[in-house]
Amino acid sequence: MIKVADIMTTNPHTASASTTLEQALILCKEHKIRHLPIVDQEQHLIGLVSDRTLLAAQESILSELNQRQRRAHEQQVLLQDIMLTKLHTVDAEAGVGQAAKHIEQYRIGCLPVVKNRKLIGIITDTDFVGVAISLLDILAEQEPFGSDL
């Protein structure tokens, strides 16, 4: 059985509850990530923001403010004000199939991986695409597409 630990991203980029919207936007852009776990000083998972959450917070002020006002607002909004706190999480020893079904069932983009409430990794829908591609490659090597039966 393939476990979550086999495909998860370890040591994911994180933020604190006092990280500003502006800092979070920069972090996600620089590291090309769509999910940002929020942890406390002991690395306990306390929340999560997604690119959608960040964009929604940003767009809520775009039409009403000029560029300078928007930047000032982004520097004042803290992630603790917009983060999700009721999170779905997974254990590193869980099966990948179980995690994939959970993501599909609840229509979420990621599952933080926790051990004793501490964030140890993250598994995203993109990770499952990578697994699917690998499995398709293995199948293609065993029986090429278009072969006669």
From TrEMBL:
CBS domain boundaries: 8-64, 83-138
SUPFAM superfamilies: CBS-domain pair
Any Pfam family: CBS
Keywords: CBS domain
The UniProt record lists the keyword Cell wall biogenesis/degradation: no
Record PANTHER family: CBS DOMAIN-CONTAINING PROTEIN, CBS DOMAIN-CONTAINING PROTEIN CBSX3, MITOCHONDRIAL
Identification of the protein by name: Acetoin utilization protein AcuB
Provenance organism: Agarivorans gilvus
